[in-house]
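Schema walk-through. Below, the input block comes first and the output block second. Nothing else is stored per chain. Lengths vary across the set, and this one has 681 residues.
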Amino acid sequence: MSSFNLLNLGNQALRSNQSALSTVGQNISNVNTPGYSRQIATFSTLPDQTGVQVDSVDRITNRFLTQQLWSDLSSYNQTSTYADMSGELDNLLATNTTSVSNALDQYFSALQNVVDDPVSIANRELFVAQSDAVVKRFNDLDAHISRQSATINGVMDDVASQINSLASSIAELNDNIQTATSSGNPANELKDQREELTNQLSEMVGIRVLEQGEQFSVFIGNGQPLVVGTSASQMQSLQGDPDSSQNDLALIISGQKITVTDELSGGSIGGLLQYRDEALDDARDELGRMAIGFAESMNTLHSAGMDLNNELGGDLFKDVNSAAQQYSRISSRSDNQSSMRATSGVSIQDISKLQASDYELTYDSDNSITLIRNSDGKQMRINQLAEVKPELPATSFATTADALAAVDEEGEFYLDADGKTLSFQVDGMKVTLKTDTRLSNGDTFLIQPVRTGAEDLSLQLQDGRKLALASPVRVTPDSDNNGSGVATVSVTDPDVLMAASNKLDPPIDIVFNNPDASVADSVMTYTVYDMSEPSNPQALSSSDYEVGKTIELNGYDVVVEGLPTPGDRFSFSFNKDGVSDNRNALALSDLQQKDIFDGGAYQDLYGSLIERVGTRTSSSRVTMEANKAVLDSTVTAKSSVSGVNLDEEAAKLVQFQQAYQASAQLIKTSQTLFDSLLNSI
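--- output ---
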């Protein structure tokens, strides 16, 4: 081998080992740099004993572990976000200062005081104050929950902006990496930056990454492209449609806006959307259902009572079916072909059937209308319900108003021939939809019968003297009664109870009669008399007596328990100046334990809500901890592959330093040989 070849070998080895030393130095200097992947110089032998060269400086990564890290980051951040938001809601519902159950306890305690002493003005005013307090508690708790919804909207705005920034940066890095690699630069640092940005992106939303050569393509949702090569789509947070209170997320792809809210999962966005759909909406709907049921049941009984002014009670709380509230419960999509009229609305008909859910109503085709209950996904075809007055064609109604009024039973519907008016009753609500033009295929409406129930709750009565604690009907057993019969009254329709002030319409006597001796197995009967003219009572009806059977009168029902004897008489008259009567107050108090809803009494419903939220919170925390353990394991595994090990790098430093010194010695030896050659001439 000539001294020249030896010099060339030494020179090649010197440069190669210098490159390897630089790579080791780069690794050591970036040991604490986030996202840095260690690099390694790859050597290859040159042909014909001409030395060595560095083919490339490669990043040490594991594609499977990288993909797994993105998946684990998305899963952990989704459950972490969900657990944080759910924990906040759990505290709101259960803390005494915000709990509705605690406020209801104080409300019914004040009600018990007026039961004990209905004449006391102080007790009455205290009850009015507690009624206002329970209203404010419903309002405040709903406001807290609504603020969470507003917070989610704000976070969605911020995250959409961050996603856009990350997507643009990834697309730009794709371009830079392509340019660098085409000129022979490995662009390792640029690839590290791209991977780190993708890590940050996966913390915000679930992603799927497709690697094609040196390029990254990032997809979200059900395959919607966020980054394709050097192009990035834009994400936009926009007002929901038709629910304007909840933001949607859309991708703008080639100028076209595509809503992707329902398709996103993973990351903080996935956690927020899951929490909003599962917990937040459920809590607000349940709270609204509870508020509506509370107000409606209290109003119904209070209206059947009598106040200190000898007047029938009105609503204790604001009417749950005011025109404004009915209209607010239904909204239409902005792209509907038909235009909804302001006379549309949703009225509450039966609180025992009312559900804590919203509904999606879609006009399909040929008068086929689908209603989806979102809480459980149940689908109902409106035209599979019973058409009102099935024995008559729709055109037989004198007016549309008559037809709409006829929809008064669960499971009935009416759709006019022009397709502009639809009414149906289901789940305790009556929906009336009126449009300016015929309903068109695909027209969609959102029905929210209880969403704002707690927000809308307000106190109607302000004067304690107007609390209707007495019954307007006085029951007077005749002093000559010999039996053990006891008559009780419940008002069913206060509007028809009285013909004029201080007078029942009409005053009634019920008299029990001897069995008919001429009829075998005859039983005792009773006769109902109109006592408008006491000197000339008019028999209205007679019937066999059955213990506990309801006797229906004009605006009120009577039940006689026990065993009256023939000749016993009960008189029913207006309860004028019955200030010490607490019968209606007792009925109001009994509502605390009554199964008002499908699910129990007021506080049963609230307790179930707290239990659901608590279970979700606990479950999400357990899942979060499990996801954190998986994430930590993946980070450790990836770090063992891509991370810098200082001990290993120190060993390589010695190895390449010695090789470098040996390469220098080759050059020195070559020089010595060359000098010897020259001296020999």
